[in-house]
Amino acid sequence: MIPQVHKQGSKTLGLLNYLYGKGTREEHIDPHLVASFDGMAPDPGRDPGATKRDLQQLLDQPLQLLEPDQRPEKHVWHLSVRNAAEDRILTDEEWRQIAHRMVAATGIDPDDGAGCRWAAVRHADDHIHIIATLVREDGRRPNHHRSGKRAQAEARLIEAEYDLQRVNPGDGTAARRPTSAERHKAERQGRERPAREELRETVRRAVAGVESEGEFFDRLAATGVLVHKRVAPSGDLLGYKVALPEDLNKDGEPVFFPGSKLAPDLSLPRIRERWSGNAVGHGPDTATDRSSGSARVSPSTARRQATSASWQAVLIIDQGDDGQIAALIAAGGEMLDALAKTSAAHTRRELRDAAWAFERASRSHIQAERGHDRGLRQAARDLVYGGPALGRGEEGATTAMLIDMAIFLVTSAAHWHGKKEHAQQAAAAREAAEHLRAAYQAAAPMSLGVMHQRGRRLSQPLQRKQTAYLRQAVPELAGQILTEPGWYALAATLADVESAGHDPASLLAVAAEGRELDTADSTSDVLVWRLRRIADLPADASAMPEHTATAPTAARGATQRPTQHTSLPAKSR
Length: 573
Hints:
The protein is an alpha+beta fold.
C-alpha cells in the first residue's frame, strides 16, 4: 500500500472536479464517496441531489471561523492511498476503515472531537483520494507535521492486518516518482517511460566514471538532451537542469528537470563528490585518462579490469567499514550503467534493467567515503571509453565473465543492506541480481559451449587427469561438479591452466577457497571464470590450442599462485 501526500492547494472545488471527473484519459469509473469526517457528507457521485459545490462548502466551512487575513492561503490537503497490483480488490467498507485510520494517523482528524473536515473519494478499484481542509472545527491548525511518514507507518500496519502486499519502508533516499500526469503524457506520446525517468537514466550513464565537470557536461551534450547551466554572478557553476527536446509544456517550451529532482545523488554538488577522492596520488594519470586523447582500452580489456575491480569491491563489502562499502556500492552502480550502455544487443535489455534496479541500492543515509571507490569508478570509465562490445569472441566471453562477477557484487550489496535494515535497497539489489542472472544466461552459452566441446574432445587420459585435479583440490564438491553440465568446460579450463604453466590443483583450490560454492547457480561456471581470470587466460577458449594426450613438459611441476589481489571473498552468489 502506497500513501502519497500531494502538494497543498488553494482550490477545494478544483480538486473535487478532478476526483469526480472522468480523469485525463477517462479512467475514473463510478466516482463516489466512501467516507467523510461525519459520515453524512453529500456524495455528488451517487446522489443526484448533491453537487460538488455542496461538498466544497461543507468542507470549507471551518475557514469562516477565521478572519480573512488569518485563513491559510493553501488550505487543501490531499492524500492518495493506492494498493499494489497484486492485491485483492478492497470493498468500499474496507476503504472507509482505511480512510479513517489514515486521517487519524496523519493528524488531520486525530479523534479528539475537533479535527479537520475531510472526504474520501473512490474512482478506481485500487485507490482512494482523501481531501481535507487544513483548519480544525475549533479554528486551530492541525498538527500534520511529517504526515507522509506517518501515513507510511500506518500503511505498514494496514498491509499486515488486511493481508496485502508488503511494501518495503523507505528512508527518504529514493528518486522522486513520476507524477500521474507525467506517466499519462508519456503514454500519449508513445514513450516507454516518463521523461523524468529517461533523463535520470541518461544522466546516470553520463556521470559513470567521469573525472571532471567538463567531461560530465560533454557527455550529456553528446546524448542529445538539452542542458541548462545555472551560473552565479561570479561565474561559478551552481547547478544544472536537463530536458528532452521533444518533451514540451503547453506553451511549446521544453520541460526542464534539475538534477536533484531526478535523484538525490544527481545534484551537481553530489556529482562533484564522486571525484572528490581523487586527491594527490588518486587522480587519473595520462595512461588512463581516456578524455586526453591517449590510447583507448579495448572492450575486452575494460571488462577484465572491471571484473578485477568488482572482485576487490566484494572483498571490502564483506569486511570493510560502512563508509567504504557505501562508496563501493555507489560506484558499482556506475559500473553497471557503463556495462549496460556498452554491451551487445542480446544482453543489453537485462543489463539495463539490472542497472535501473540497482540505482535504488546505490543510495542510503550512510555517507560514502570517496577514494575507496577509485578502482570501480575507473572500471566504469574504461568501459565507457572502451566502446561497444561485440557479443562474440573475447568481448562476448569477458562480458559473461564480468556479469558473473557482478552477480557476486550486487548480492554482497544486498546482504549488507539487509544487515543495515535498508529494506528498499536490499530488495533493489536482489532484483538487480535476477536481471544479471538473465543477462548471464544470454551472454555465457556461446563461450561456455566452446569450452564444453573442447572438454568433451579431451582424450580419456587427460579427462582422468582433470578429474584427479578436481578431487584433489575440492574433494567435498567434486561429486556434484562431475554431474553438472558445465564440468566439461571446467575440464578444458583446467587443461588450459596447466598449459599456461600453472599447477591446476593448487589454482583450483585457491579459486574455490573461502566461498560457499554450493549457493551458486552453477559451481562449474563460477570456477571456470575464476580460473580464467586468476590465470590470465583468454576468456574465449577458441583462441587457445587444442590439448594433446600429455601436458606440456614446461607445465609439469610449475606452480604460480595468484598474488594477494586475487584472493577470494567469503560468500558465493
